[in-house]
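Still learning folds. Look over my entry:

…
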Amino acid sequence: MPRDRKPSPQTRKVLAALAADPAAWRHGYDLARETGLASGSLYPILIRLADRRHLESRWEDGVDGRPPRHSYRLTSTGLAVATAAEARRLVPRTAEGRA
C-alpha cells in the first residue's frame, strides 16, 4: 500500500503550475521556467507523478526542425493531489496540532 506523503516543496511548485490550467498540456521546458527548477529536479518529479497516475504524458511531433518532446497535464487524481497540497500549505502549523 503506498504511503500518503506530503509532496516536497519542489513537487508542490510543479503541481501548482499544472493546476493553474489543469486541462492544458505543458512542456517540461515551460514548467522549468515557471517553477525555477532545474531539469535534474523537474524531470524526476514529472516521472514520479506520471508513475503515480497524477499526470498524463504524451509525445508531440517535432515542429520546425525541433525534435519530438513530451508534454504533461494533470489527471483528475493529480488535480485532487494538487488541491490537497495547496490546502495543507495554507493550514497554519498550530492548526495541524504542532506547536
In short: Helices lie at 9-19, 28-35, 39-51, 76-90.
